[in-house]
Structure formats: structure tokens, C-alpha cells
Amino acid sequence: MKFLKIFLLHFEGLFEHRFRSFIWFLIPVINMLPMILFWTLATKTNQNISWSMRSLNSYYLILIIAISMLTSHIEEDVGDIDIKQGELTRYLMRPFSYYWIKFFEEIPYRVLQGFYGITLFLVFSTIFRDYFQINLSTGIIFFGLISSIFAFLISFTFKMIVGYTAFWMTDNRAVAETVYILTIIFAGQVIPLDLFPNQFREIVGLLPFASMIYYPVIIFLGKATFSVMLKIISIQIFWLIFFLILERFTWRKGIKEFTALGQ
Amino acid sequence: MKSVSVKNLTKYFRVHQKEAGVAGSLKSLFHRKYYDSKAVDNISFEIDEGELIGFIGPNGAGKTTTLKCLSGLLHPTSGEVSVLGFKPFDRKNEFLRKISLVMGQKNQLWWDLPPMESFLLNKEIYQVSDRNFKKNIEELVTLLDVKDVLNIQVRRLSLGQRMKCELIAALIHSPHVLFLDEPTIGLDVVMQKNLRSFIKEYNKRFNATIILTSHYMGDVEELCSRVMIIDHGKIIYDGSLEQIIKKYAKNKLLTVIFSKAVEKEKLQQFGQIKEYDNLKVRIAVAKESSNKVASKILNDFPVEDINIEDPEIETIVRFIFKSKKV
Fold this sequence. Notes:
The complex is a heterodimer of chains A (263) and B (326).
Chain A (H helix, E strand, L loop, with lengths): L1 H14 L2 H28 L7 H18 L3 H11 L3 H5 L5 H30 L10 H27 L8 H14 L11 H9 L1 H14 L4 H30 L8
Chain B lengths: L1 E16 L3 H10 L2 E16 L3 E5 L6 H8 L7 E6 L9 H4 L2 E5 L11 H11 L4 H15 L14 H13 L5 E5 L7 H18 L2 E5 L3 H7 L2 E6 L2 E7 H8 L2 E8 L5 H4 L4 E6 L2 E7 L3 H11 L2 E7 L3 H11 L3
Parallel strand pairs in B: 3-7, 3-8, 5-6, 6-7
Antiparallel strand pairs in B: 1-2, 1-4, 8-9, 10-12, 10-13, 11-12
Helix pairs in contact in B: 4-6, 5-6, 9-12
Keywords (chain A): Membrane, Transmembrane, Transmembrane helix
Pfam family, one (chain A): ABC2_membrane_6
Protein name (chain A): ABC transporter permease
């Protein structure tokens, strides 16, 4: 009950910024358009591409929802505002875990962005049905949802750690931007990881970035067999535990460095 | 019973030093120089339950750093701190439910929502029962007279109204120890007065231990019977305000209003003239001879009114900072 009330109060706060939230949603939508254009040309000129254009369209459509719903951007709040400007002070004075209060601050954004994404998905997959290939079964939805929850938790915890680097660095933007670039490449935001060369694909698949966005997309696309889905969930559980331990460690070390500047 | 106990508290900050200019920037790229800035330097003190204490000192003296160590925000470099029997930096929930920190320059209220929403959030976070929440809100809102602004967006409130709402948010869980860092900063004199009255009332009513830092001597004079003067991270005075006046006020101030103009030269024999016009003079007179001087002036000049007073506390504190002898 306590958590629900805290969540609802943060949701109220979000409605004050609903327009900004909508604009943020449009960014991945716009970013995906050149990719679809690129693949349209690529599939026409190269017959060796193993994915059909319908699969690729569906991939980018689901990817938009995954990016908007599962990718946390909490590192900016944590690093720039809370740690560098000293806003962390007000969180530290409350008998509530900083990790969880940030979690409740983040969730409403993801829910609202997800709402935009699902609306877009329903509109596109209904009006332009012939251009997409999405067959959702109960099993796919079940594993897809589990994988999505893990993906969000991994992304959120990882981004919290990225934010914590501000405890030691006056300017941690370089770290945040590096992570951003790596995520674009290795979470499948440019091309599906399946289309990477064999050995490279194996390695990239084990990195945490794939667990944050790519895997749930692949499951919802129906491109993962039962055994692959189990492997995906296992990899995600590994990364989640790893990041949760790392998050506790960096928090405990970092908080001793906190100078509460700006306060 | 002791609320706060501090033994040999030290807090150093590691500060990066860079030579000026492009050459300095390039040099610091490869070889960075650091030094330890002593924000708090080996201080010890104890505070009893229900005491209202003022920390005074110039900017960068270490007042706020001390407050941050006491509230658990900063990890001390060395020394022991105990607040209500807890080690503050552990920030145990039980400890955080018993304290509160208000910083005059920062707010915890949600900027885009009415203050009531922030109060409700704190209610959930501090797990205040519905009954206590209602009782506390009613009491605090009445005391601070902010009933009309509870449902107005915080960004639309005046600084004074916001500060009052900040206090409500900080007190909703009835803390036993209250840390106030510059609570009256930026407020007009009327609002300063109101807030002081409220702090005094809260201290009395709940027997709460209150520690405040302020640049305004008025805050300290009106609220605190005990003050700690901090400079360069060290406590250079810990005691009552009266004691400071006794110890440092070597002079008394005589303000005399004459019914007829009196020449300045005739008054110079009594002490140092601080202010003069033909009908009014303010003279600093040695403390031990102030009564004699007053009676001589009364006899020798056409006096309409005479007043003997201690110098302003602000003047004394300024003198202490300058001489650093306590």
C-alpha cells in the first residue's frame, strides 16, 4: 500500500510534464525511420540478408516500445542533479532506500512512454498489417514479459551505477555518453544482433546491453525457441544479480565521497 | 539526557589545486595536485535533550559541515558522533524517523505540485499514521498560518510561504532533533520574526533538541541560550550569550539626548564618540566607569534622556573573529 501510494504520487508529478514525455517518446520513433529506409534498400539490393523486410519492420516497431519502456535514463538525475548539485541530501534524510525511491520516480515515466509505444504499435500493426509479421502466443507473451521486467531492472540498476560514478568524477558525462554509444550498438538499436558476424554475435550476446533491450524484442518477435528463451532469462538473471551486487558496493563506497555540495 | 555527543570530530575534503592559465590546465592534466581542506578540525561537544543551540561563524567556518556530519550526510574523516544514541552515518531508518534537516537554500517540496502532495509523500515515507498526520498538519498549519496555500503549486508560492511549507514537511513526523541550516535566509524581517517564534514554540512544546546555523545574529540572540562559535573548523567559543557579552564587552554604549546643543569637544573626555549630532551622542565608555560617566553627564549637561546598553552581539562576535582570542 505504501509503495502504491508513493508510486501514484510520483505519477501525479509526471502529469505536469506529459508533453515533454511525449516529445521524448518521439525521439526513438524518428531515429528508427532511417533504419527502416536503410533496410528497405538493403533487402532490395542484397538477397543474402536472412531477415525479411516484414521481420525488420516488426523488429524496429517493437524496438521503439522496448526503448521507450525499458531503457532507464536515471543516470542523469543521479549523477548531475543528485550527486553534483547536492540534491541527494533530501533523499538521504528520509527513511527510505535511495535506490527504491529513484525506482518509483522512474516507473511512471516508463509506464507513460510504454503507453505511447503500445498505442503506436496497435495503430501501425492494424493499419499497416501487411508490412509487419507479429504472431503473439501465450508462451511468447509470458516469456516476453518476464524478460522485459528483467531488462528494465538490469537497465535501471546499471544506469544507477553509471550515475554513481559522479561520486568520484567531477564530470561523469564521458562515462554516461560512452554507455549510451555502447547501448546503441550492442543492444541492437542499429541492426539486429542476429545480423552480426557469427563469433562477434556470440560475444555481444553475452554483454549486458543485449539483456537490456534486444532479448525481449527477439522473444516478442517469435525468433527465440523455448531453449533460447531459457538461455536469455538465465543470462538476464546473471546480469541482474551482478549489477545489484555492484550497485550496493559502489553506493557504499561512493556515499563516503559525497560532499553535499550546492547545499 | 544527552541528545548529541561529538568527540574529536574531523572532516577533511580533498581539494584539487590548479595553477591559473592554460599552462596550469595542461600541467594538471598529467599531474594533479591535491590538498586536504580542514572543514572541521577536531571538535568535541555535547548537547542536552531540549536544548536550542546556535552555531555561528563566517562563511566556510565549518558550521554546515558539522551539521551535515550530525545528520548523517557526511562521513567523518575521524572522530565519534552520536545523535540520540545512533551513529548518524549509518542512517538507520529508526534514526532518520527521529531527526530532520531543513536547509534554507534548498527545498524538498515538489516544485510542480501543491505542498500538500509533498506532505502526503512524507507521510508515507515516514509511515505516519492517518490520525497523527491529520493532527500534526492541523497544528503546524495553524501555527505557521499557511492554510490558504496548501493546494497551490509550490512554484507559485512566495519565499516565505515556501519556507513555512518546508518546515511543515520537515516536521510532519515530529522529529526529536531538528537541524536548521540558515532557516531565515532571504526572508524579510516580519517573516524572520514569525519563523523564530515558531522555532521557539516547537522547541518548548515538543522538548525538541534544535541546532541552528545562521548568519543573522537576530536568530541566535532571540532563540539560543547557548552558542558555539566556529572558525576555521574549530570551536572557539561554547557557552551562553550573556557570558560572551560579559567577557568581551569591555565598553558600554551611552546614548544621550540633550535638550540644548552640546559641543563635541566637551564630550570627548568621556570615551570614544561613535555618533554625534548637536542634540544626540553615542559614546563607548569603559564598562567599569559607565555609571560614573552617566551621572557626570546628567549633572553637567542639559540631558533629556540617557540610555546605557551593552554593545550589539554582532559587534562582539566580529571582534572575536578578528582577534580569534577566546
